[in-house]
């Protein structure tokens, strides 16, 4: 069953067409990746899913709901990664979780969420004192504290060291395993390959490919490369002048 359906999505900013006729669906229980170069339309697409942007044409549905017209209802089911810059430096971990849980009618137990993301021993630590990996874990916790059915993560591991990235990947898998559908926007092809069931590859606002990571590699034409990687395949798809 599709929990997110996007059909013929179009979004312009003045003369710039950020997203042009993009269509795809996200199935229940998937980790669905959106990849492509800067300016490909990745963030605009997920902002339309979140209800932060209104499409110029086309439709977006989250669990059958319109994210703009039924934003309050969608908000009950959709968890969104908070950008770290939006949190006050002095706000403690437990205070942030307690505050954000108060925004939802049926929140998860924030103490349980805090333990699940591995921040129990940092409950009294101010946000400004957290490491990069700990801040990212808190952003994940804040996306989950509303007890969502779908969670959206945009550039989740940017700036993290290798161990923190792997720890975050394990956390994302555990979230999916308990029934949360995930949309993951990423620049990292190793991350997309390890985590995602399917990928939408965007190029200049258009859908260049939609398949499993293995399918994208198998179907890509990469001249001069005998055994292309996912990165090779995505580069070939997004650099294609057609």
From TrEMBL:
<feature type="domain" description="ABC transporter">
    <location>
        <begin position="4"/>
        <end position="229"/>
    </location>
</feature>
<keyword id="KW-0813">Transport</keyword>
<keyword id="KW-0472">Membrane</keyword>
<keyword id="KW-1278">Translocase</keyword>
<dbReference type="InterPro" id="IPR017871">
    <property type="entry name" value="ABC_transporter-like_CS"/>
</dbReference>
<dbReference type="GO" id="GO:0005524">
    <property type="term" value="F:ATP binding"/>
</dbReference>
<dbReference type="GO" id="GO:0046677">
    <property type="term" value="P:response to antibiotic"/>
</dbReference>
<dbReference type="InterPro" id="IPR003439">
    <property type="entry name" value="ABC_transporter-like_ATP-bd"/>
</dbReference>
<dbReference type="Pfam" id="PF00005">
    <property type="entry name" value="ABC_tran"/>
</dbReference>
<keyword id="KW-0547">Nucleotide-binding</keyword>
<keyword id="KW-1003">Cell membrane</keyword>
<dbReference type="InterPro" id="IPR003593">
    <property type="entry name" value="AAA+_ATPase"/>
</dbReference>
<protein>
    <recommendedName>
        <fullName>ABC transporter domain-containing protein</fullName>
    </recommendedName>
</protein>
<keyword id="KW-0067">ATP-binding</keyword>
<keyword id="KW-0046">Antibiotic resistance</keyword>
<dbReference type="GO" id="GO:0016887">
    <property type="term" value="F:ATP hydrolysis activity"/>
</dbReference>
<dbReference type="InterPro" id="IPR027417">
    <property type="entry name" value="P-loop_NTPase"/>
</dbReference>
<dbReference type="GO" id="GO:0005886">
    <property type="term" value="C:plasma membrane"/>
</dbReference>
<dbReference type="InterPro" id="IPR050763">
    <property type="entry name" value="ABC_transporter_ATP-binding"/>
</dbReference>
């Amino acid at each position: 069953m599709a929990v997110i359906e996007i059909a013929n999505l179009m979004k312009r900013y003045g003369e710039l067409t950020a997203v042009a006729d993009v269509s795809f669906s996200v199935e229940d229980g998937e980790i669905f990746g959106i990849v492509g170069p800067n300016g490909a339309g990745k963030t605009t697409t997920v902002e339309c899913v979140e209800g932060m942007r209104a499409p110029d044409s086309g439709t977006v549905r989250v669990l059958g709901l319109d994210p703009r017209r039924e934003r309050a209802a969608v908000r009950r089911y959709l968890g969104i990664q908070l950008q770290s810059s939006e949190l006050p430096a002095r706000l403690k971990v437990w205070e942030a979780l307690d505050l954000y849980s108060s925004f939802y009618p049926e929140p998860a137990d924030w103490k349980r969420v805090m333990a699940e993301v591995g921040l129990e021993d940092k409950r009294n630590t101010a946000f400004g004192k957290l490491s990069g990996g700990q801040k990212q874990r808190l952003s994940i916790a804040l996306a989950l504290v509303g007890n969502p059915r779908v969670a959206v993560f945009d550039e989740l591991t940017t700036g993290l060291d290798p161990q923190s990235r792997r720890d975050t990947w394990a956390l994302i898998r555990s979230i999916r395993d308990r029934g949360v559908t995930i949309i993951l926007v990423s620049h990292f092809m190793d991350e997309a390959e390890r985590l995602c069931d399917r990928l939408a590859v965007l190029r200049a606002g258009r859908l260049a490919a939609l398949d499993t990571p293995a399918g994208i590699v198998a179907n890509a034409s990469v001249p001069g490369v005998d055994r292309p990687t996912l990165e090779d395949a995505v580069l070939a798809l997004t650099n294609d002048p057609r």
